[in-house]
Design a protein that fits this description.
The protein is of the alpha/beta class and about 425 residues long. It has ten helices and 17 strands. It folds into two domains: about 30-65, no CATH class; about 65-355, Phosphatidylinositol (PI) phosphodiesterase (TIM Barrel), CATH 3.20.20.190. It has helices at about 115-120, 155-165, 185-195, 215-220, 235-240, 245, 295-300, 300-310, 330-345, 395-420, and strands spanning about 5-10, 10-20, 20-30, 45-50, 55-65, 85, 125-130, 135-140, 145-155, 175-180, 225-230, 240-245, 250, 280-285, 320, 375, 380. Strands 6, 7, 8, 9, 10, 11, 12, 13, 14 and 15 form a ten-stranded mixed beta sheet that branches. Strand 11 (about 225-230), helix 5 and strand 12 form a beta-alpha-beta unit. The longest helix has 28 residues, at about 395-420.
Length: about 425
């Protein structure tokens, strides 16, 4: 008997050859939270994993794909939507060294920028430095890029962005630059070299005084599909790159941004409840990234999203920035984004329940609360599960893991610097 398999969304098809007769068996694909043994068991937009840090040692289906809200609710101002952002998008675990020196630094993501974009990420945080007579993406040590903290020339990653925008003519991407580039016109040169200027959203048309942004439909029609913000205020006059905190509000990054019930503004940012800026970026990641802890941390996002919503005067986060974005105990950042977009854009519990062109509050039935459903979006099947819950954690254990990580990293960096200066 021969066996072949095909998959389509939440259904698998198995072809059996029995006595020269072909029989198709329809095998339902598993959804969020269902036990699995391999990725082939799970539906589209899911992978098979676990979260031992949260006490979930058994394999189950976990989300790794976002629903783009603009595919369902179209034509609203850009600042009405919420988008997924990867913190230090370039800092990819397993990325080969490009300097010939073994890298010793932190890692924040697990897959390529191209794959991040394909999975629904629409914002990239990139740290840019002068290095090797070029602009590189790098972690710093005392404000400088070293060969053991460098990743790739910035133009390489920007070319991935250009390829995605070219292949997806209705998508909009935002780049946030932590800017340490001092070479004259350094940023302009790398964006030009990556052929991204044709998508550039000009500062002259960025709204001020809290006004709405243009509609996503208008931005796409004019091909102004790349928003770029820099942390260096001087770049606005010298290179026409928007100064981040003139247009965005932002909470504290790192450990201060994940304290339950608290959401202080970043010191460079205006207070979160002020109105001159019409975009809000919520940072949600610890100071020290620990890969195996990320699934538990990301699963705590719903509570922090609610705290920041209140701190921002009932304003939704337009951008949610996380480490290891695919890691959670089930729905993770994807479900939080679905809930925010659903409530804001159509008055439904999740964006998957929204209906294109329907009035506010006209929602599709996606099943009982906290039960897995399979709403269809543009022919693909995604999870509609939304579970807001808190896992019991050991704060001491978390602190010990991070303390050990910081100590070891600092020791390695100190030794590397010591020997580099002696050579």
């Amino acid at each position: 008997m021969g066996v072949n398999e095909l998959t389509n969304g939440s259904v698998g098809y198995r072809l059996l050859g029995v006595n020269q007769r072909m029989i198709w068996l329809v095998i339902p694909r598993l959804q969020v939270g269902d036990s699995c043994s391999s990725v082939r068991d799970c539906g589209t937009g899911l992978y098979c994993g676990n979260c031992p840090a949260a006490g979930r040692t058994k394999l189950s289906c976990i989300r790794d794909l976002a629903i783009q809200p603009t595919s369902i609710v179209k034509g609203l101002p850009f600042n009405r939507y919420s988008w997924l952002v990867t913190h230090n998008s370039f800092s990819i675990l397993g990325e080969p060294s490009r300097t010939g020196v073994e890298r010793v630094t932190f890692y924040n993501q697990e897959d390529s920028v191209t794959n991040q974009l394909r999975n629904g990420v629409r914002g990239l945080m990139l740290d840019m430095y002068d290095f090797n007579d070029d602009v590189w993406l790098c972690h710093s040590l005392q404000g400088q890029c070293y060969n053991f903290t460098a990743f790739v020339p910035a133009v390489d990653t920007l070319k991935e962005v250009e390829a995605f925008l070219s292949e997806n003519p209705t998508e909009i991407i935002t780049i946030f630059i932590e800017d340490y580039v001092h070479s004259p016109m350094g940023l302009s040169k790398v964006f030009t070299a990556a052929d991204l200027m044709k998508y550039w959203y000009p500062i002259s048309e960025m709204p001020t005084s809290g006004k709405d942004w243009p509609s996503v439909t208008d931005m796409v029609a004019k091909n102004r599909r790349l928003l770029v913000f820099t942390s260096d205020a001087s770049k606005e006059a010298s290179e026409g790159i928007a100064y981040q905190w003139s247009y965005l509000l932002e909470n504290e990054p790192g450990d201060p941004g994940i304290v339950p019930g608290s959401c202080p503004n970043r010191k460079e940012s205006q207070p979160l409840n002020s109105r001159p800026a019409s975009l809000f970026l919520q940072n949600y990641f610890p100071t020290i990234p620990v890969q195996n802890e990320a699934c538990k941390e990301n699963s705590g996002l719903p509570q922090m999203a609610q705290a920041c919503y209140a701190a921002a005067g009932n304003r939704i986060p337009n951008f949610i920035a996380v480490n290891f974005y695919m890691r959670s105990d089930g729905g993770g950042v994807f479900d939080v984004q679905d809930r925010i977009n659903g409530r804001t854009l159509c008055g439904c519990d999740t964006i998957a329940a929204c209906q294109a062109g329907a009035p506010m509050g006209a929602c599709k039935d996606t099943g009982a609360p906290n039960q897995t459903t399979s709403p269809s979006v543009n022919g693909n099947v995604y999870s509609g599960t939304i579970e807001f819950k808190t896992h019991s954690t050991s704060a001491a254990s978390n602190n010990n893991i991070r303390s050990r990580s910081v100590f070891l990293l600092r020791l390695q960096l100190t030794l590397l610097l010591f020997f580099s200066f002696r050579l």
